[in-house]
Structure formats: structure tokens, C-alpha cells
């Protein structure tokens, strides 16, 4: 099925899918140079496009003002190129909002996903095959439909991937995700290069936090602004960008700016879980992130390895430990290494820059300045932790 230079506007579909394709001899569906807009559905509507087997290609097309999930693609090769998904609302019983695929290979390039309101994850991939790629993708201005006080919001992700042989994010931007987290990857191989993960709607709230001092009151910390001597309320916006579970990850030349929610999440930018996976971060920048433990990064579980090189951590805040990085008890099987990196103006109750639990850490050719904590202005540790400097 080939749909080209076609416009679908102000349509209503009471149930099922707007475009349904099955058993097309493996050829699938191509949508190009087309527009789908102002499509209204009731609660029984499943999705806009549903394809089983073959290929789903969306080229140079726009999807605007739609109140249902967009693409369901199973056992397909799915390619979305030079396309825009704008003003999408999902408030139904489906398990996704933009795309869901099982045993699907996904490539999204030079496209935009923006102004989405949803009660579900946006892109959901289960056991995708081949090489999956997000390149030159801009994903911005997301919000949940449920109340901001709902605790379930922290489990919503823009991208959720399980058991991918290869998943790559390249030259992409994720920004202003209100009450959404960014990318959840489990049991996969992940590469992130030259990408930006930021939540600038928090920047104004945090502008003063980089110059905060700590005042000890009854063994707790009250954060006092040096500008007006008033307590600063840390941002209530939940936005944790990478949650990695047993995933081999290489992250290079990327930035994580003003993410997290200190009362809800460990690792304002990245949280590492699971009992396997090697993690490498280089040439990257973490600034203004907030977390309960680990303002920028929280390493938990039993990672196989963890390395940081030539990376800068500035103005990150942890309510408890590790203004920049938190290592939980014995969280890395092989001694983690940090080299040629800079930690400055980070803040935490224990370990202004790094908190280490029962773990050896090797630190080489790195700089620590103006980090603040009650215990361990630069680094704090407990148990049998050892910090080896060179």
C-alpha cells in the first residue's frame, strides 16, 4: 500500500485503526508527502496506523492535532524520515502514544515529536531486531495528562526499549519533558553520541542553586540562597533522562542539563540498575541536575564496569549523597575509574561531588573545586570504600 501526496483531515474513527494493514505479502505501507490532521477518536480507537509484517515507511509527512496513538508496527522494518508529529493527545487504554513495535527494527531520522500530552509511554519497543536508530530527532514539550501529584508519573518514558541487540541515539535532542523521563533501556546495547538531554523549564528555578550554601539544622540541611536569604524550593518537575538496566552503554559528547526531581529519583540524569552491563561516559557535560542520591548519576545494582573520562560535572545537587555521582554499596564489580574530569560547584549532604559505598574507586588526573557538603566536601565514603588517586 502506497499513500502519496494525500491529505486526511477532520475525520472520525469510532473504533479500530484509521489505517489498518495486514497480510500485504510482506510489502507493508509507505506514507509519503502526506498530511494527517484534526483526527478525533473515541475511547475505543486503537491507533492511527496499524501494520503487521513487512515495511512501514513514513516520509516527509505530518501528523497534527490527533487524539489517539499513532503507529502500531509489529514484525516490521519501520522508518520515519523528515516527518513531524505535533499536538498529539493520548488518553486511552493503549500502552503507547507515538509508536509501539514488537520484533521491529526502528529508524527515526530528521524528524520532530513535539507538544504531546499522554498517559502512556511514547515509543515502546520489545525485542527489536537489527540496528535501531534515532538520528537528528527532536523530541520536546511533553506532559502527562494525569495530575502532577500522581506518583505513577515517574514511570512514564519518552522511549522504552527492552532486549535490543543495538540501539543508537545520535545527534538528537530531548528537552522540556514535564513529568516524563527520557529513555528506559533494559538488557540491550546502547550507544549515545552528540545528543542533548535537557529540561530548561527547571533552569529558572535552579539559577540560584549553583551559588547555594548549606546550613546545618538538627542534622538536616536547609538550602539558603545567598541572594535573598530565602529557602529555595527545588524543582517539582520529574525528568530523569536515562534509566539503564543491565545494558552495555557507551555515551560520548553529550550533555545532560537541568534534569531530575530530588524527592523522587536517584540519579537526576542517569540511573544505572541491574546485575550486568558495562558503562562508559566520555567527553560529556552534566550541569544543574537534581537527585535524591546522585544529583547527576546514580550507580546501583551490580554493573560489570563503569568508566568516566574527560567529562565535566557542574552545579549538580543531591539531597542526600553524591552531588554529582552516587555509588551504592558494591555497585560495580570491577573498580570504577574516573579520569581527566572536572567536578565543580556540586552539592550534597554527604560527598559534595561523589559518594562511594563499600567500593574502590580509581580517580586519575581530575579536578575538584568549590563542591559543598556537610561530610566530605569533594568525596565521602563508608564501609570498606577506598579512593585511589593518581
Provide a short characterization of the protein structure:
The protein is an all-beta fold and 390 residues long. The chain has one domain (2-389). The protein has one helix and 42 strands.
Please give a structural write-up:
The protein has 390 residues and is mainly β. It contains 1 helix and 42 strands. The strands form 3 sheets. The chain has a 37-stranded parallel sheet that branches. A 3-stranded parallel sheet has the order 29-33-37, with no helix packed on it. Strand 21 (213-217) and strand 22 form a beta hairpin. The longest helix has 4 residues, at 203-206. It starts with a strand and ends with a strand. Residues 147-153 and 201-237 have low confidence and may be disordered.
How widely separated are the two ends?
63 Å
Residue share in β-strands: over 45%
What is the number of E strands?
A: 42
Given the structure, what is the number of helices? 1
Q: Give the radius of gyration.
A: 22 Å
Net shape: elongated
Instruction: Give the class from helix and strand content and strand pairing.
Output: mainly beta
**Uncertain ranges:** 147-153, 201-237
* Whole-number total of structural domains: 1
Residue share in helix = under 10%
Mean pLDDT: 80
- Biggest sheet details: 37 strands, parallel
Amino acid at each position: 500500500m502506497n499513500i502519496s501526496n494525500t491529505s486526511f483531515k477532520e475525520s472520525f474513527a469510532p473504533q479500530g485503526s484509521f489505517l489498518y494493514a495486514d497480510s500485504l505479502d510482506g510489502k507493508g505501507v509507505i506514507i509519503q508527502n502526506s498530511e494527517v490532521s484534526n483526527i478525533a477518536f473515541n475511547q475505543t480507537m486503537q491507533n492511527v496506523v496499524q501494520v503487521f509484517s513487512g515495511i512501514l515507511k513514513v516520509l516527509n509527512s505530518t501528523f497534527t492535532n490527533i487524539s489517539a496513538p499513532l503507529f502500531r508496527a509489529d514484525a516490521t522494518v519501520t522508518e520515519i524520515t523528515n516527518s513531524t508529529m505535533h499536538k498529539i493527545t493520548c488518553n486511552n487504554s493503549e500502552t503507547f502514544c507515538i509508536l509501539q513495535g514488537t520484533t521491529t527494527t526502528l529508524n527515526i531520522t530528521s524528524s520532530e515529536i513535539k507538544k504531546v500530552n499522554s498517559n502512556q509511554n511514547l515509543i515502546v519497543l520489545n525485542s527489536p531486531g537489527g540496528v535501531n536508530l534515532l538520528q537528528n530527532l527532536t523530541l520536546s514539550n511533553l506532559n502527562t495528562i494525569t495530575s502532577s501529584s500522581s506518583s505513577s508519573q515517574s514511570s512514564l518514558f519518552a522511549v522504552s526499549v527492552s532486549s535490543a541487540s543495538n540501539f543508537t541515539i545520535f545527534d538528537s535532542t530531548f528537552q522540556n519533558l514535564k513529568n516524563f523521563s527520557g529513555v528506559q533501556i533494559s538488557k540491550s546495547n546502547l550507544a549515545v553520541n552528540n545528543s542533548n538531554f535537557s529540561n530548561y523549564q527547571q533552569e529558572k528555578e535552579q539559577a540560584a542553586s549553583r551559588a547555594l550554601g548549606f546550613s546545618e539544622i538538627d542534622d538536616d540541611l536547609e538550602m539558603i540562597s545567598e541572594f535573598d536569604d530565602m529557602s529555595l524550593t527545588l524543582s517539582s518537575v520529574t525528568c530523569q533522562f536515562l534509566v539503564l538496566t543491565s545494558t552495555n552503554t557507551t555515551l560520548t559528547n553529550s550533555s545532560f542539563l537541568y534534569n531530575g526531581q530530588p524527592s523522587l529519583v536517584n540519579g537526576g540524569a542517569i540511573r544505572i540498575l541491574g546485575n550486568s552491563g558495562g558503562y562508559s561516559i566520555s567527553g560529556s557535560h552534566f550541569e544543574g541536575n537534581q537527585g535524591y542520591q546522585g544529583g547527576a548519576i546514580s550507580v546501583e545494582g551490580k554493573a560489570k564496569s563503569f568508566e568516566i573520562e574527560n567529562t565535566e560535572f557542574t552545579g549538580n545537587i543531591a539531597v542526600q549523597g553524591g552531588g554529582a555521582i552516587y555509588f551504592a554499596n558494591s555497585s560495580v564489580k570491577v573498580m570504577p575509574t574516573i579520569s581527566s574530569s572536572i567536578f565543580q560547584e556540586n552539592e550534597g549532604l554527604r560527598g559534595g561531588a561523589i559518594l562511594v559505598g563499600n567500593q574502590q574507586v580509581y580517580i586519575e588526573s581530575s579536578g575538584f573545586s568549590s563542591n559543598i557538603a556537610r561530610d566530605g566536601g569533594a568525596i565521602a565514603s563508608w564501609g570498606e570504600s577506598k579512593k585511589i588517586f593518581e
